[in-house]
Design goal:
This protein is mainly alpha-helical and about 1000 residues long. Helices cover about 60% and strands about 5% of the residues. The strands form four sheets. The chain has a five-stranded parallel β-sheet with strand order 8-9-10-7-11, sandwiched between helices.
């Protein structure tokens, strides 16, 4: 009947924006799955299979009339029943009663479906989306093309025309399934062009398992694996394909596949990038333009501008031109560098990169973090950015090869921070600013920037204030710039304040600056001029503003929220916001985002110096930090309580005197925790140095334990735990040390360092027992039970978990008891007691559910899913794991999300759904990248290998198992022996 569909593509279960806007009574039809009909949201009965076959045949003719003979042939083929014509008429009559009048019409002895709205048939919507995607692809907009194809493909709802009989339906099923595969190949091809190779591996693995003879899918999988750094697996795919084609069809792989194999063997650099542009706009390289705006009133410095411009002009033909500007803070290094960089833009047509390295602050930017940002700005997708500093630096130089790019590295700490960030390529150049003279930066042209000359300083002041106001008070203006130490930043602040106050004269400003006690209090070589500059703004503050300026600078962290600032100042949020906004107006504070504020690093240092010098009473600093710690602890406790209803930890944390925030729902609580993660952890580390705050700092870290499992903050959490552990050990307070060790043990456990985690937990038990603090004892036994399970020490594990259950029951800590029960379930599984394992996990999950503990309830479902899998109850096992997966994703628990995907892969293998198992295992590897530790990665690789071997990808399976064996052997894990047994027949083949 119908031919190949016009170029379509699909994704999504709604039909289209147009369809969504139709009246609720509009008819809609689906054929990309079971044949269905809706009036608005009401699904209509479509009758028997033959009646649905008639409806499908008419819908697929797109309004054209089908004769009775054509319909009989479509439904029954060459062997119709004797009453076939009467049956067709009966089916048509029944459909008319269901559909709107005038939709199914009789015409010339046949039938047709007419009068449908645009978007009424899912196949038509798919065709429109596919055409739109093709246009976007031709125009070079691959992102939009992929998005539209995704919408088209999501319209499929299972097998096309599912359950519909007849030769016509079978032909259409074959045709539309082939079209669907073409769309998937097209989208995946564009995914690889966009650098989404790591994400594509999972889907391609499943598709190649489902369609093993489709060579294009194999080719895309090889390319995706190669670009993901998995060369051995990519070559294994080719070997599997060649063997399969020879066995099944007696043919060799097509030339394109052979060529790709050879290019992989040769590590062809061209494979690291998209193979070919899909349209002219797509080949235009990313051209970053990151330079900050130059100041319109740039003044003087002509000799330096000429000198630096001359150095940059020599970049062409040299390996690299590097100029390093040094000088005290506020001398105008950044302003000069930005001005020169803007003038030189034409000489660097491939772009300009900029970063503030924060070298003057306590936490300078890490080179690997900066390189990641630069690589993204240069067009490198996240999935292609390696982890180590050395690999990132090498890739950075490779990406810059052949380009002419200017790199401005502002506020550098030292030469060691700068070296990995230098382009190193001919035609590129770097400008570096720093407070230190970089004599150890090889090959750099060094420039020492001093203060302005009096004439330049006066000229800058005049350009900002205005010629009329300065002309009549020239001497006063000279006094002002002299009081500023001729520092550009100081002059700019003073001039801007005067320009904003029309009632002030220059003499008024000069008088305000004439009191040295207000300008300079602590004389320090190198810092004197910077402090004089900031003294201008600080000295003009009202007392309440000045207090806020001093106290807010005490806290570490990248910024501070309005609520946290209110705690520091011990003021209502409304009054705090007024003060902070007034400080923003004076340029002493920056507005980082709505409701969030930050200091420039030098201003923060100055604010702290002011606090030491000016704070009255002198002891107000400690109470301010204590209130901030209380705020974070109280709020983190509220988050913990709402995430874990009934958990007794909240009853065992240190008391607080300053309140925290409250939340209406889990989402608000969770969002706060992850937004404040860096600030919260910074304050906890800072308070390690304050003996009176140490216990609260440790309890804060325990209440924020979700940050350890999130993946995003795991390293910072562990670093904070180490700091607090050392502080507690030095303080000699056993109760606090035990709790600090518990947080560190948890961090080690999450990262897969089981021996270290067990050692810390053992120490916790000893210390906490002596301190009569039963809660850490309970959690330490729970942790040691899990560790023993992972290490195959099941007798030890059962003993620890049994003790944990007893302790939790003594504390009436039901969620803790549930956790230990679920862990004990896994010990029972490991020792063959499957039925009791199911019962224990079920008991733990029911405790969680009874207390409304959805996040830890997901852990219960995880344990129950494992037990049900081993007991052979695969459908309920998958249901429990999918429920857990949804919660873990919603809670941003990447570790548990990845592990749940791994367990789903185990269910799929047990159910012989090997392609799906491979897809889930691949997704687990992606989610667990960088978290969870190598032991967990080895487990996932083992399961992935089993799934791949089952679908005939023995080459890739061998690579996965070999990597798993290496991991297990390095860790000394007993799992190595089992994986060697899996490898033996594959290696012998």
């Amino acid at each position: 009947m119908d031919g190949v569909p016009r170029v379509p593509e699909q994704r999504g279960h709604g039909f289209s924006a147009a369809a969504a806007a139709e009246p609720t009574a509009a008819l809609r039809f689906g054929v990309l799955g079971p044949v269905r009909a809706w009036r608005g949201e009401e699904q209509l009965p479509t009758g028997s299979p033959q009646q649905r076959a008639l409806l499908a045949a008419l819908l697929l003719r797109e309004g054209r009339t089908a004769t009775a003979a054509e319909l009989i042939d479509a439904l029954w083929g060459e062997d119709p029943p004797s009453q076939a014509l009467a049956a067709v008429r009966t089916y048509a009559s029944r459909l008319r009663k269901v559909l709107d009048p005038g939709v199914l019409v009789s015409e010339s002895g046949g039938y047709a479906v007419r009068g449908l709205d645009d978007g009424a048939l899912d196949l038509a919507v798919a065709q429109e989306l596919a055409a739109e995607a093709e246009k976007a692809k031709s125009a070079g907009d691959l992102c939009h093309a992929c998005e539209v194809l995704g919408k088209a493909l999501s319209l499929w709802a299972g097998e096309v025309l599912a359950g519909v009989p007849g030769p016509y339906a079978e032909a259409q099923r074959v045709r539309l399934e082939e079209w669907r595969l073409q769309l998937q190949e097209s989208r995946l091809d564009m995914d690889l062009e966009l650098g989404c190779h790591a994400e594509a591996v999972s889907e391609l693995t499943a598709l190649t398992a489902a369609h093993p003879l489709r060579e294009r899918l194999r080719e895309l999988l090889m390319l995706a694996l190669y670009r993901s750094g998995r060369q051995a697996e990519a070559l294994a795919v080719y070997a599997d394909t060649r063997r399969l084609l020879a066995d099944e069809l007696g043919v060799d792989p097509r030339p394109g596949l052979k060529e790709l194999q050879q290019r992989i063997l040769q590590a062809d650099p061209g494979l690291a990038q998209p193979s070919a542009p899909v349209a002219e706009p797509a080949v235009v390289p990313v051209r970053p333009a990151q330079l900050p705006a130059t100041v319109p009133d740039f003044t003087g410095r002509s000799a330096f501008v000429s000198e630096l411009s001359g150095v940059l002009a020599t970049a062409e033909g040299r390996v690299m031109a590097v100029s390093a500007l040094a000088g005290i803070g506020g001398v105008g290094k950044t302003t000069l560098a930005v001005h020169v960089a803007h003038q030189a833009r034409a000489a660097f047509p491939d772009g300009q990169l900029y970063v503030d390295l924060q070298g003057a602050g306590p936490r300078a930017a890490e080179p690997e973090t900066v390189l990641g940002s630069f690589l993204r700005a240069l067009g490198t997708p996240d999935s292609a950015i390696p982890d180590s500093l050395e690999e990132r630096a090498a890739l950075y130089r490779s990406v810059l090869d052949g380009r002419r790019v200017l790199v401005l590295l502002d506020n550098a700490k030292d030469a060691a921070q700068v070296r990995p960030l230098l382009p190193g390529m001919e035609g590129c150049a770097a400008l570096v600013t720093s407070r230190v003279r970089m004599v150890d930066l090889a090959g750099a042209h060094l420039v020492d920037l001093d203060v302005m000359s009096p004439d330049e300083a006066l000229s800058l002041f005049t350009r900002i204030v205005g010629e009329e106001r300065v002309a009549s008070e020239r001497e006063a203006a000279l006094d002002v710039v002299a009081a500023c130490g001729f520092l550009p930043l100081a002059i700019r602040i003073a001039a801007s304040r005067l320009a904003a106050r029309r009632t002030w004269t220059v003499s008024v400003l000069a008088a305000k600056l004439g009191d040295e006690r207000r300008r300079l209090d602590e004389l320090q070589a190198g810092d004197l001029a910077v402090k004089a500059t900031f003294e201008l703004g600080y000295g003009a503050l009202e007392p309440a503003q000045a207090r806020a300026f001093r106290l807010l600078g005490l806290a570490d962290g990248p910024d501070i929220s309005l609520a946290a600032a209110a705690a520091v100042l011990d003021l209502p949020p409304e009054d705090t916001e007024d003060l902070l906004e007034s400080l923003v107006d004076t340029s002493l504070l920056e507005s980082a985002a709505p409701g969030r504020y930050r200091y420039h690093d030098l201003v923060r240092l100055y604010a702290r110096a002011c606090a030491e010098r000016d704070e009255q009473p002198p002891g107000e600093q400690a109470p301010a930090m204590s209130r901030l710690l209380d705020f974070y602890l109280a709020t983190a406790t509220a988050v913990y309580a709402i995430e874990r209803p009934g958990d007794r930890l909240v009853d065992h944390l240190a008391d607080t005197t300053h309140p925290g925030l409250t939340f209406a729902d889990r989402k608000g609580a969770r969002d706060w925790l992850y937004t404040e993660a860096n600030c919260l952890l910074s304050v906890a580390r800072q308070c390690a140095e304050r003996p009176g705050a140490l216990r609260r700092a440790v309890d804060l870290l325990w209440a924020a334990v979700d940050l350890s499992e999130s993946g995003a903050n795991s390293k910072e959490y562990e670093a904070t735990a180490r700091t607090l552990r050392e502080a507690a050990r030095e303080a000699g307070v056993e109760r606090v040390e035990a709790r600090a060790l518990m947080t560190l043990s948890h961090a080690h456990l999450d990262s897969g360092r089981f021996d270290m985690a067990d050692e810390e937990a053992e120490r916790v038990i000893s210390l906490a027992h002596r301190a009569d603090d039963l809660l850490p004892v309970s959690w330490a036994h729970n942790a040691r039970g899990v560790i023993a399970l992972y290490q195959g020490r099941n007798v030890d594990g059962e003993e620890h978990l049994s003790r944990a259950i007893g302790h939790f029951r003594t504390l009436t800590d039901r969620p803790g008891e549930a956790s230990a029960l679920c862990n004990l379930s896994r010990i029972h599984l490991a020792t063959g007691r499957t039925q009791s394992a199911v019962s224990l996990a079920q008991e733990g999950m029911e405790i969680y559910d009874a207390m409304g503990n959805s996040m830890r309830g997901a852990n219960g479902r995880y344990a129950l899913g494992m037990a049900l899998t081993q007991s052979g109850q695969l459908a309920p096992a998958a249901d429990r794991l999918l429920e857990a997966l949804e919660v873990f994703r919603d809670s941003r628990q990447r570790l548990w999300e990845g592990m749940t995907l791994f367990r789903l892969a185990e269910v799929d293998i047990a159910a012989r759904q090997y392609a799906q198992a491979a897809a889930n295992a691949e997704m687990a590897l992606t989610v667990l990248r960088g978290i969870g530790g190598e032991w967990r990665r080895g487990n996932v690789l083992t399961v992935l290998g089993r799934a791949l071997a089952a679908v005939g990808h023995t080459g890739r399976a061998r690579v996965c198992w070999e990597e798993a064996v290496c991991i297990y052997e390095e860790l000394g894990s007993p799992e190595a022996a089992a994986v060697r047994e899996l490898l033996a027949p594959v290696q012998a083949a």
